[in-house]
Amino acid sequence: MTVKTRFAPSPTGYLHIGGARTALFSWLYARRHGGHFVLRIEDTDRERSTPEAINAILEGMAWLGLDYDEGPFYQTERFDRYAEVIDRLLEEGRAYRCYCSRERLESLREAQMARKEKPRYDGRCRHLTEPPADASGDPVIRFRTPLEGETVVNDRVKGRIVFANRELDDLIIARADGSPTYNFVVVVDDMDMGISHVIRGDDHVNNTARQVNILQALGVEPPVYAHVPMILDEDGKKLSKRTGAASVMDYRDQGYLPEAVLNYLARLGWSHGDQEIFTLDELIQLFDIDDINHSASSLNSSKLQWLNQHYMKTGDPAHVARHLAWHLGEMGVDPAGGPSLEALVSAQAERTKTLREMAQNSLFFFREPEGYDEKAARKNLKAGAAPVLAALREALSGLGQWQTEAIHETVSGVAEGQELKLGKVAQPLRVAVSGGPVSPPIDETLALLGREATLRRIEAAEAWIAENVVDQPQEG
RNA sequence: GCUCCCAUCGUCUAGCGGUAAGGACGCCGCCCUCUCAAGGCGGAAACCGGGGUUCAAAUCCCCGUGGGAGCGCCA
After folding, report:
1. Where is the Glutamyl/glutaminyl-tRNA synthetase class Ib catalytic domain (predicted)?
2. Are A285 and A32 within 8 A, CB to CB?
3. Annotation marks residue A237 as catalytic
4. Banded pLDDT at A54 (limits 50, 70, 90)
5. What is the pTM of this model?
6. Helices A301-314 and A355-362, interaxial angle, to 10°?
7. Whether A2 contacts A37, CB under 8 Å
8. Which one-letter DSSP state was computed for residue A328?
9. Given 3-state DSSP classes, what are the helix, strand and coil percentages for chain A, each rounded to the nearest 5?
10. Distance A307 CA to B43 C1' (A)
11. Straight-line distance from CA A159 to C1' B17, in Å?
């Protein structure tokens, strides 16, 4: 059997992190089996679907690198086809027109709820042969669900699930205006597009029995279903925009690499023994529906951060640098005016968790620090630091080659000359050039910053000390 | 309320009748160290409860309990 999977989001919002995972699973499964992956936009709800949301979904897919072999298909462009199938169902008596008013349906539901029954259509129009006398307005079309027997779904992740048909009611497949509804279009599309495996969130399990029944009425073999558990937020609650990043683009904005997000998502609800780090190729090779978990899982941002740092540390610096450049740009920095981004990535990757943090902590390489971190200055830019800085400035200005190793020797040389531990020299220097207490190793920092900026900032620090510290009572 | 699903460290998970219940993130401690990190080493930390089945249950069955989903002229 040729494998064909699909991702079928409704364009009513951004590409959700949960949706991204189902998309990833579907994509991986198709790639794993040399099949096709289809993107289908479920936009039958014209009220809620927006072009912005469609773009957001396409953008999210592109950022993650989940490419599709077919589509995007739009359901709104397939209305003729749906009408055709509905007519066929009507002719064959597998569907019927229902003239019940919304009001009647509403009170029916209320009465059932009051009786603690499961609300469902009572089948009043099921046996009508012609419109009732009191009919007003256009009818909806309902699917004639079998009254008896059971519908079995052999779910690839949940196992065998049995639904008694009497628990199902006659669902509406076309609205009064003739437009088809979700449970119906899904079935027609999956059938027409030759979808072999439906991988989707398990909030759809209860729909599956209805869909299987429609498929059977159409005389078609159902696809293989695999319902993956939900993703919960860090507190184990349902995901919402409120509780942090829900849209995949938020992850980009927060400084995550797409490969980190992909790896993280893959390991959320799926596993392969004790392995945590997977390349995309490994995922394609190893992914299997049978290894998907049965229970919902919570997001854990610290694990994502760990993965992200892993990819920043071990990835191709040029690749990471491209992403870093984007974030620098977001912060109004033109990377052209500073050190090599690749070198910067190498220097910062092991001390930052995200690209955003890396960019933030690297700002001083591109522009003068805006003043000194108060605490760091109080501790390191004391009166006693002035001669140290002066010595450093002198030694560094005479340095032949502005390279890490030579700089390192020079700085340690100054420390020895002043009979100070390296830290006593490096730290004031660090504050002087970076404005704060944290940076890559001082020699690397200076090498990246360049001689000119280094000397200028040392001088500025000396002036700052003269102006702000000289009159203060000296302490050690 | 009815139907369906789920249940191993805080979190992600391995386990598929016999294990000292393993790994990862995070956390704690030590080492390393010019800052912050990274890294190395070590540590604390889990089978929801009760019944069965079995020589033997985290693993199989049942019942509870607790979560979740669905019950639209939404998808």
Report:
1. 3-306
2. yes
3. no
4. very high
5. 0.94
6. 60
7. no
8. H
9. 50, 10, 35
10. 24
11. 21
Q: Which of A38-42, A240-244, A404-408, A422-426 has the lowest mean pLDDT?
A: A240-244
10 Å CB burial of residue A260 (0-12, 13-18, 19+) is: buried
CA A276 → C1' B22, Å?
14
pLDDT tens string A117-149: 999 999 999 998 888 877 778 999 999 999 999
pLDDT at A280 > cutoff 90: yes
Contact A124, A96 (CB under 8 A): no
Strand B within 7 A of A105 CB: yes
Instruction: Name the residue type at position A307.
Output: L
* For residue A475, pLDDT beyond 60: no
Place of tokens 């531990």: A421
CA–CA dist A262, A66 (Å, integer): 10
Q: Which nucleotides in chain B lie closer than 7 A to a protein CB?
A: 1-8, 10-15, 22-26, 33-38, 67-75
Write down the pLDDT at residue A3: 97
- CA dihedral sign of residues A319, A323, A325, A328: negative
Q: Which of residues 415-434 of A touch strand B (CB under 7 A)?
A: 421-423, 426-427, 430
**DSSP H helices in A331-441:** 341-348, 355-362, 374-380, 385-397, 404-417, 422-434
ipTM above 0.90, yes or no: yes
Tokens 């020079």 belong to residue: A410
